[in-house]
């Protein structure tokens, strides 16, 4: 390499190391904690440098990517109260295919201005830097390719994967992304978690068992709704009148209701979604707990939906958005659903959020048309942020919640639609609803409202008397619903009709 290239690579390496230290939230850590980061970064840089024959440009590219990782981690910690994890790699493409869920949380001057400048500078350097790697170019490129191909092949071959996992566990990763980033570095922890999660995944998948589900002879309709960013806002100030009148009515009449302990805040819907349907705890999932749909749910699993299908139910999941979002079009059949219905059923444009009232009408119409007993899992999305600063709804909560209150009222109206339906009141159905996570609002940041991170749920069965508050974990909700179904008593009219 030329002298200027050696100097440039050395300087950029120091900058990258500083960035990675800051990302791990431990900028003054001992040098030995840098070793996993250094090994991963060195392999990545050397492979690209050998393939392109441009060492300085390759180093600048990895510095830019490290800076992007720092920005993503800082944003996620600020908005969602947790760091970047290895499973977030699956969301990189989603930033560009579904930007409304990601880019509003990053200042445009940073993302488009500084980001564009750095990418442009890297592209310019690649175009003007002459080939500078020593040795035969063809041999160099072959070695560069092998530096990438060999680890990837070893990752996908089970015997070598087991060896890699044993070596990595000598570093004693804890599985906690915050602690492992501090001790192994951000890149080191990514590599460790990626390898260990794949190595242990088959055993965890085999152990994922929902258990038996007993259904009554009349097989009543069962509707389970996951409400986006939903919680009982009356908890913020019990002295104020809550505008969620439909939710309150269902909660007061419910067989079960209470707080729901969820494993996310502000986002990561799939965690609550999978926990409810599978009954799996974070401990059951291990490192796959961060995003169960990334790899864990890519094979058939024993779930509530699978058990309902075995019992004679038509199992349907409806998500009025892009059915490919988070790979749900591949996951839902593995979770036991006969049909997975996306935004195409609502004639929604790409990126459009279907109002909750429209979803409520669709659910009622679908069940009315079906002759088979139905288990319907609705994953609504209309209440997704970001929200406007000002609320149009008149309420004492409006100054606190802003535009979030407006979309929440749509959820409440949908609850009223389902609670007043024929399938629930005349056919003896069961209606359950829960919040997937609290919204990412300033008033809730760092538990500023002193209500914890839980959401709320209810299970409404007109054949059962109202019960007291019963707080549970989200992974218990599916089994609570199954318990309600097992002890269900048909309404006289429903029994006569069947």
Task: List the topology elements.
Elements: H1 3-23, H2 35-52, H3 55-80, H4 94-97, H5 108-128, H6 137-156, H7 158-169, H8 177-184, H9 186-207, E1 222-227, H10 245-253, E2 256-261, H11 269-278, H12 282-285, H13 304-310, E3 314-318, H14 328-334, E4 339-341, H15 356-369, E5 374-379, H16 398-401, H17 403-419, H18 422-425, E6 430-435, E7 455-461, E8 472-473, H19 474-486, H20 492-497
Parallel strand pairs: 1-5, 1-6, 2-8, 3-4, 3-5
Antiparallel strand pairs: 2-7, 6-7
Helix pairs in contact: 1-3, 2-3, 2-6, 2-9, 3-5, 7-9, 8-9, 10-17, 11-19, 15-17
What's a concise summary of this model?
The protein has 498 residues and is an alpha/beta fold. It is 50% helix and 8% strand. The chain is built from 20 helices and eight strands.
Descriptive account of the structure:
The protein has 498 residues and is of the alpha/beta class. The protein folds into 2 domains: 3-207, no CATH class; 222-497, Alkaline Phosphatase, subunit A (3-Layer(aba) Sandwich). 50% of the residues lie in helices and 8% in strands. The protein contains 20 helices and 8 strands. It has an 8-stranded mixed β-sheet with strand order 4-3-5-1-6-7-2-8, with helices on both faces. The protein starts with a helix and ends with a helix.
User: Helix amount, in percent?
Assistant: 40-55%
Strand proportion = 5-15%
Q: Could you say what the CATH topology of the largest domain is called?
A: Alkaline Phosphatase, subunit A
Taking pLDDT < 50 over at least 5 consecutive residues as the criterion, the unreliable ranges are none
The spatial strand order of the largest sheet comes to 4-3-5-1-6-7-2-8
The count of domains is: 2
Task: Please count the helical segments.
Answer: 20
SSE succession: HHHHHHHHHEHEHHHEHEHEHHHEEEHH
Oligomer state equals single chain
Radius of gyration: 26 Å
Rounded to the nearest angstrom, the distance between the terminal CA atoms is 82 Å
- Could you give a short account of the major beta sheet? 8 strands, mixed
How many beta-strand segments?
8
CATH superfamily (homologous) name of the largest domain: Alkaline Phosphatase, subunit A
| Morphology | elongated
* Name given to the CATH architecture of the largest domain: 3-Layer(aba) Sandwich
Mean pLDDT: 92
CATH class of the largest domain: Alpha Beta
Structural class estimated from helices and strands? alpha/beta
């Amino acid at each position: 390499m030329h002298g200027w290239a050696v100097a440039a690579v050395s300087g950029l390496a120091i900058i990258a190391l500083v960035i990675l230290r800051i990302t791990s939230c431990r900028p003054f850590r001992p040098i030995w904690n840098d070793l996993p980061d250094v090994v991963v970064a060195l392999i990545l840089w050397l492979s690209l440098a050998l393939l392109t024959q441009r060492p300085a440009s390759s180093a600048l590219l990895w510095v830019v990517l490290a800076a992007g990782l720092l920005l993503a981690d800082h944003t996620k910690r600020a908005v969602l109260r947790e760091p970047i994890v290895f499973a977030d790699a699956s969301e990189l493409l989603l930033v560009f295919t579904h930007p409304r869920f990601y880019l509003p949380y990053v200042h445009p001057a940073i993302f488009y201005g500084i980001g564009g400048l750095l990418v442009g500078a890297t592209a310019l350097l690649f175009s003007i830097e002459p080939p500078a790697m020593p040795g035969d170019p063809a041999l160099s490129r072959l070695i560069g390719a092998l530096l990438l191909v060999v680890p990837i092949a070893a990752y996908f071959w089970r015997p070598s994967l087991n060896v890699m996992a044993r070596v990595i566990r000598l570093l004693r990763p804890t599985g906690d992304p915050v602690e492992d980033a501090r001790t192994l570095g951000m890149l080191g922890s990514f590599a460790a978690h990626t390898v260990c999660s794949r190595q242990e995944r088959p055993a965890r998948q085999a152990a994922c068992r929902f258990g038996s589900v007993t259904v009554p002879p009349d097989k009543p309709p069962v509707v389970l709704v996951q409400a986006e960013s939903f919680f009982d806002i009356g908890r913020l100030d019990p002295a104020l009148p809550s505008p969620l009148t439909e939710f309150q009515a269902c909660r007061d009449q419910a067989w079960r209701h209470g707080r729901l302990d969820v494993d996310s805040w502000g986002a990561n819907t799939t965690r609550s979604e999978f926990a409810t349907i599978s009954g799996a705890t974070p401990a059951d999932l291990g490192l796959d707990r961060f995003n169960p749909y990334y790899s864990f749910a890519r094979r058939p699993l024993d779930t509530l939906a699978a058990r309902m299908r075995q019992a004679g139910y038509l199992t349907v999941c409806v998500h009025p958005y892009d059915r490919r979002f988070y790979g749900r079009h591949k996951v839902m059949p593995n979770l036991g659903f006969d049909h997975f219905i996306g935004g195409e059923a609502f004639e929604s444009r790409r990126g459009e959020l279907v109002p909750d009232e429209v979803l409520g009408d669709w659910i009622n119409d679908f069940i009315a048309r079906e002759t088979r007993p139905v288990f319907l899992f609705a994953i609504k999305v209309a209440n997704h942020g970001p929200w406007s600063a000002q609320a149009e709804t008149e309420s004492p909560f409006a100054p606190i919640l802003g535009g979030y209150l407006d979309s929440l009222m749509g959820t409440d109206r949908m609850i009223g639609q389902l609670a007043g339906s024929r399938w629930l009141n005349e056919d003896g159905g069961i209606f359950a609803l829960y919040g997937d996570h609290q919204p990412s609002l300033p008033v809730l940041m760092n538990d500023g409202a002193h209500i914890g991170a839980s959401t709320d749920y209810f299970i409404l069965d007109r054949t059962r008397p109202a019960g007291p508050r019963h707080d549970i974990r989200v992974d218990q909700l599916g089994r609570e619903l199954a318990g309600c179904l097992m002890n269900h008593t048909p309404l006289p009219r429903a029994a006569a009709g069947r």
